Amino acid sequence: MNADALRDRLLTLRFELRRLFGMPGIIGVLMIGAAALMGAEISSVDADTKEMRAPFTQAAKTRRPVDKQSAQVDAVALDALPELFPRFSQSADDIASIFEQARGSNLTLGSAEYQVSTDAGTRFTRYQVMLPVKDQYSAIRHFLALVLNNVPNAALREIHVERPAVDGNILDARVRFELIYRSAQP
Length: 186
What we know:
It is a single chain. With 186 residues, the protein is α+β, with helices and mostly antiparallel strands. It is 54% helix and 21% strand. The protein folds into two domains: 1-64, no CATH class; 85-182, Ribosomal protein S6/Translation elongation factor EF1B (Alpha-Beta Plaits). α3 runs antiparallel to α4. The radius of gyration is 34 Å and the shape is elongated.
């Protein structure tokens, strides 16, 4: 069978279906076929989803309820938490480490702002350091990574970046680190 004969038979089939069902009937048959295909696919996806969720539902069923002993263990761990932080007397060493990381990243820092705060009733002292930085994005990002990796009690509290010139690659950034220390009070 050549291409012309196949084309003629398909045209004949199309005309016969159109005469028998009309255009809305043909569209309806196509929609029913598409719905059947989608139904088969949905059941396949549903089976895959149930298979993936099975380990998690089993773990949720075997999870033990919270009892008094585990609550006491959590309370002891929470009481020991402040002892994991350094004392405030280490703050000068931490600031020196931050400046050393800036030198290691070839950054020039502007004049820094410092703020110490202790909330009443807490066992932590927060030491905030605001540093103005001016350099390329990659150098600033490298500096932030070095500080966060080398000063374990440091947290990046805020970063604000501006590009002074549209065509320039030098950025003005303000970086605020928060250093957390345990308080001297019990």
